[in-house]
Records
---
Amino acid sequence: MTGTAAIVGTGFVGRAWAIAFARAGWRARMWDADPSVPEAARGLIGELLPELAKNGLLGDASPADVAARLEPCRELETALDGVDWVQESAPERVEVKQALFRDLDRLAPDSAVIGSSTSSIRPSLFTGDLPGRRRCLVVHPINPPYLIPATELVPAPWTAPETVERAREVMLAIGQSPIAMARELDCFVVNRLQGALLEEAFRLVDDGFCGAEDVDRALRDGLALRWSLIGPFETIDLNAPRGIRDYVARYEGMYAGIHEDQKRRVDWSGPVMDRIETERRARLPESAIPDRIRWRDRRLMALMAHMRKARTELGD
Amino acid sequence: MTGTAAIVGTGFVGRAWAIAFARAGWRARMWDADPSVPEAARGLIGELLPELAKNGLLGDASPADVAARLEPCRELETALDGVDWVQESAPERVEVKQALFRDLDRLAPDSAVIGSSTSSIRPSLFTGDLPGRRRCLVVHPINPPYLIPATELVPAPWTAPETVERAREVMLAIGQSPIAMARELDCFVVNRLQGALLEEAFRLVDDGFCGAEDVDRALRDGLALRWSLIGPFETIDLNAPRGIRDYVARYEGMYAGIHEDQKRRVDWSGPVMDRIETERRARLPESAIPDRIRWRDRRLMALMAHMRKARTELGD
């Protein structure tokens, strides 16, 4: 399944979406409130494509194929004309989304899905008064979506079930891994799970049981290796002879015991932050952060290339 | 640094330790309460070594080199004679550990570190009355330690700091990633982090926001990809322009808001378990669990081979 997507807002997130759609064979129209940005975005994407190709992350397409599917537009009306999908990635302010969604809903064909990349704003807060609110929802990527497949689909109370289903199909078609929420909730799924783990991490360091690097080792060299293959529910399903019910019968008592401690919240910006920041800056000076981000992205690209190969060779 | 390790208890965990020590050049004496088990364990390890070699996970050693370093012993006294390290992996019952540690402390050289593989018993509960309690601690692997490097070092109140430091050096020398806790705590670090995330996962499914597979996608295709490279603290340190303090200034309010909900515990074996089990068994019948575990281990082996290669080629 291919079609035409309008990428509305072509900063870091919008550019990443343009790559995700275009490598899957979609035409990607690119529009931004600043009319000089889409052309520049096409240039930045062009620089990235060869490295993606080298890692096998463009599928059958060449960098030139993908680049040819990008269409910078100066007028929003032109960008939205006849599209199948609209992906809004404007700044994270509710009044910006409200104003923009009014235009998107007015200009996009009735049959188009309109998704917002917001990572934290409930869709009901900026789609409620739109005639076409049934086809609006949050489609939240974990950045960058051309490397990380998980994508949260969050409906407002009035989003039609067919909209969510259509969004799920489109995300699967472009190679994303959709998490379809039944209804909206603050922070959605991914950040709630991250927050729960971070709360325990800050508590462990604040109580002086271990340092920040120990927590990072626990995930990087431990838990996350399994979770990156099978997720936390499948992990415990495979960790007791008769599956997850058996696991819970054996270990729930242990976890229930520690949950009592987990009710106590530690102020992340309190004294614990001095300790964690000192530890982090000793490992990575602030001036080295941009280089480390580029390293992370190279490693992430290599990891995704490995995952693709391993799925083919060893199954999924 | 190499030496001789006594592997005490040669079931699944003990066998995995024998591999971890022997591939790093250590001699691994193997003893079990059932005297027929160590010979059988050597056979099982021998079957596994070629696949580890194929994935580059034996370092410079050949399967024959590693196998030649395994020494099944019938007598505990022989197994412990002159060793540098003792790794106990007996059944998880405190009275078993108490009785065994009395023998280990009596028979091992004064200079040897004595580690227990227990995943849940505080070391103070089975080392308190030993003359050599200063050199005893928990050395908890995330199974299997020849694939997953994270290893928790948990001291009792009387464990000497030099013991923890020596354990850290030995673990680094054999290629593990030590998490050195400052003092003991129920569930240690890894299971507390896992527990915190699982509590939120069960809550999300119980409240009907998403299914178990959605949670698995959120980690497998999302959070765990980054965490497997850089851990959760480095992840947020790289996710704001000026590092972790900047990230916390921007997002702590959001996380503090959801922590209120996270105080409410869901009974994992209540109605939510019916839903999760139905979903899991539809994806994986109980009879297919053993095959799936073998698949997981093959994928984990390939993943660790990738990580090793990527560290060499792209840095760490």
---
Amino acid sequence: MPRRIVIIGAHAAGVDAASAARKTDRTADITLVTEEKHCGYSRCGLPFVIGGQIPSFPSLIVFLPSYFQMMKLNLKTETKATSIDTTNKTVEATDKNGKTEAIPYDSLIISTGASSFMPPIKGKEKQGIYSLRTLEDGEKIDAAIKKGGKTAVVMGAGLIGLETAIALKERGLKVTVIEMLPQILPQMLDPDLAKGAQEMLEQKGINIQTGKPVEEILGAEKATGVLAGGQQFDGDLIVSAFGVRANTQLAANAGIALGDTKAIKTNARMETSVKDVYAVGDCAESTHIVTQKPTLMQFGTVAVRHGKVSGINAAGGYALFTGVLGSSVSRLYETDVGSTGLTDGAAQRARIETVTGTITSKTKADYYPGALPIKVKLVVEKESQRIIGAQIIGGEEVTQRINAISFAIQKQMTARELAKADTAYAPPVCETWEPLVLAAEMVMMKLR
Amino acid sequence: MPRRIVIIGAHAAGVDAASAARKTDRTADITLVTEEKHCGYSRCGLPFVIGGQIPSFPSLIVFLPSYFQMMKLNLKTETKATSIDTTNKTVEATDKNGKTEAIPYDSLIISTGASSFMPPIKGKEKQGIYSLRTLEDGEKIDAAIKKGGKTAVVMGAGLIGLETAIALKERGLKVTVIEMLPQILPQMLDPDLAKGAQEMLEQKGINIQTGKPVEEILGAEKATGVLAGGQQFDGDLIVSAFGVRANTQLAANAGIALGDTKAIKTNARMETSVKDVYAVGDCAESTHIVTQKPTLMQFGTVAVRHGKVSGINAAGGYALFTGVLGSSVSRLYETDVGSTGLTDGAAQRARIETVTGTITSKTKADYYPGALPIKVKLVVEKESQRIIGAQIIGGEEVTQRINAISFAIQKQMTARELAKADTAYAPPVCETWEPLVLAAEMVMMKLR
């Protein structure tokens, strides 16, 4: 009898799990169950459809029905997994017609993702509060703009909040971003670098209000504004971008252990506490490469890597997940903002003694027209001199500088080694002394 | 008495040596001797002045007289160092007025650079053969174009040859590039990747003739064409881009040892065979990080790194040079071509058994408008699975991908580790699965 692999969820993690499972076991019976109508699309692309850079929401669908057919995957859309029986190894699921079945599995992969989170704020039940997690969310925001929305208040200055704010501004709305913390992008940046990013956004005309916790959502039945830090901000569109929470209820109900981060606990094979059950993507923990502690990194790149490892294992292979650094990047207008490893703040919280080096440089030779500014902050563990984090804000080639530091952290490169690294140079693409090298040099000066 | 440091040469290596020496010893007496009128300019920028991207040749001067004043460096231009007396520790130099002096030193740094090389071809003494090494060379080519040159033949398809060919084409000339070897960019690329770069240049209208050794330079007194591979190519401008040779005569005459590469032999402190004499930049050998053998990498980035190490040591400090990988990049029209470590060909010649992985991907998410093609080739040592080289051709972020692989090679990252690396992602700047990771994956598949 062919191996039966059931996957709950059919986005980045789920589909990559299915693909890896198929490549590992050509004869397995692989079923994906998702309550959504649309699956296999890129959530990360949603703000760019609203902003107008990408022509339509369906453009974001990366895995078309033909893909599932080609890979011989059974796809059950609009089918909700309601419970898992880990003893009898079945998943109970109900389709849109109300028909319930128990789907048997040999291996189960839980990729239930995460959902937009709304804190217990007064008025949070009001109508017309938008979020941006699903394709349908995106369509609703788009419709509200088309209906004549002129002003927007975005609650939360994380990546999704800022990308949504920019998209709304691109569509001509007057946009205010409200953030409880004293800085934007608190997961990615230390306050010093966040300040520069915030100023850039303000120069583009986005009103950013940091240090203002949202106290109430205002309006009669429909949300028409927010009260934050004692101040009133009105908006035709009120957008909730407080972040997401892992969808763990299904797993928890089945007795599968959650971890310190409240996401599903996993080991390096992406196995949960229950045999033959894996968890991947936004609902699953990973190990942080620097701290070696459980962490929750809800990124598309982590999801696909999780998915692949779980798919190989679920299909009888053997693969290990080597951990995360939280490498991430976003293009905010013409400026790329990237981060990997620990911020200095996160390092302090992990009780790691640090030295940092921050430099400002250019993306091309000084004499080459069009050179753009770039700022690099390196975070180094003082005792070992190892690089443990980097934040970069700049006009070009930020993503791959983040990747370069990610590799350096993974391979325990020291600041001294980076200060002496062999780098490539040509006037139209970089300076003779690479900014990453200069930042390492700055760290070495402080360590002397 | 203050320490006397003499530096022969005042370009990238020499000036960075002087700066590092000054920072190490605030009271040293530091003298730079150069036979050139202009110093401290970027040679790498020359093609872009001819091409019109950079407004003028003086724009390329990175170190102005004010810099030398600020750093308290004695700069003797148009002064030729004629001999070194390593016993009495003096450099004999003659200025433009014919005045000769013996300059005493405690530490001597030789940064005599390299000169354009012309092989013993029939007719090589003819007038009107241009090269592109110095600012004056650039001015001559510019003047020849302004005088009405309409066609050009460039001999040599290395980086300088191609960058010059593009610059001439940008100025409206009909350009032919002649290369003896069967491929362009033989130092940087394996034939498979070189083919793609060549096709791109041909599509831009540059006529590239590979596998054609230059047999004769044609013309009466003035060069008007070349005979190559039995075929005649006519040109108003004949450009020699056969590469450069280290300027070692001064060192050799003083009994300073040359190495296997025929450049000046150095150790990790950039010391030559003679005590208190250092050699740096295009005239000096380095150790290759992969082969651990002497190699000659005549790049600006290597020159400044050499210079810095020698300056610290010459001024009484202690610094080590950690070797080279030949990381290099060039923007050819809108395509960036980069390389680091060993090509597969170079690895074969070093008798390293390899596995390679080549993939073609895009620089943005597939659905994001403006995604550009990118091709990555990884070279991996079969037995150790360690990455030893990479070649990348693509539309964006090639330079920092090269740097990322340079760090990976330096830290002995394996293909398996790269295949599992944590990378950053956002639709406008990269794909979910980073091309470097996919290339490593390809290698792993071949290793199975």
